[in-house]
User: Which sequence fits this backbone?
């Protein structure tokens, strides 16, 4: 078979994107569709979800909060047929000074991503084909200790060993973690507001790659993790070298 007529690597497979209405999730849905997959999108906002589904030609959608365990379990139980891959992009960091956090806030910040990823894995495993995989999102920025990051550094550190341990428990289903730095997404725009363009300029000047990492960059890595069956239990950095700059 010539390269021009090769079968797309995700042909005949189904990819579920949790948090698939915008940003990295939507970009992953686009990339998965381009590689032949059927995609199922979930998100909280039904209007944005429908718009995203129309754009990528999603097989189906479900609007619910992924942190609602009953809704999460009901979604996977109600899927029409087996699935191959699940990408989880829901959730985000909390930049609150440590001494301003209550004990409950600390517990939540340390466990939010791990608990969400674990509950997705628990709910999805029975619906997944054994050669499929889970892809989680983490970050590289929290590896530096900085008073402005609050609990983020500690929360970041929990994800790689969690991913590795879960990969052993779920085998042969594969589990991998993407650790991103700054990614130019609508979420980044909402967090930075008027400072967005200054941040872009700073990164273009200082990153070794001399450009800003985009959602499409992360999506390309996510699809690679879905298609390369030798990868499991690992953390893959994608930050353009941001963690190595001053």
Assistant:
């Amino acid at each position: 078979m010539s390269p021009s007529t090769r079968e797309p690597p995700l042909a005949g497979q189904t990819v579920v994107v949790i948090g698939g209405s915008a940003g990295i999730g939507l970009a992953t849905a686009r990339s998965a569709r381009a590689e032949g997959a059927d995609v199922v999108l979930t998100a909280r906002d039904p209007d944005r979800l429908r718009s995203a589904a129309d754009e990528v030609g999603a097989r189906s959608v479900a609007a619910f909060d992924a942190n609602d365990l009953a809704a999460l379990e009901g979604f996977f139980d109600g899927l029409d047929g087996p699935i191959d891959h699940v990408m989880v992009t829901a959730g985000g960091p909390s930049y609150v000074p440590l001494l301003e956090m209550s004990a409950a806030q600390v517990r939540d910040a340390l466990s939010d991503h791990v608990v969400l990823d674990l509950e997705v894995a628990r709910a999805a495993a029975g619906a997944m084909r054994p050669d499929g995989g889970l892809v989680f999102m983490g970050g590289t920025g929290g590896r530096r200790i900085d008073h402005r990051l609050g609990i983020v550094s500690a929360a970041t550190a929990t994800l790689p060993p969690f991913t590795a341990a879960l990969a052993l428990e779920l085998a042969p289903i594969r589990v991998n973690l993407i650790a991103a730095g700054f990614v130019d997404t609508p979420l980044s725009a909402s967090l930075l507001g008027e400072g967005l363009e200054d941040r872009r300029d700073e990164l273009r000047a200082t990153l070794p790659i001399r450009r800003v990492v985009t959602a499409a960059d992360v999506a390309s890595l996510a699809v690679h993790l879905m298609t390369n069956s030798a990868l499991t239990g690992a953390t893959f950095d994608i930050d353009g070298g941001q963690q190595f700059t001053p």
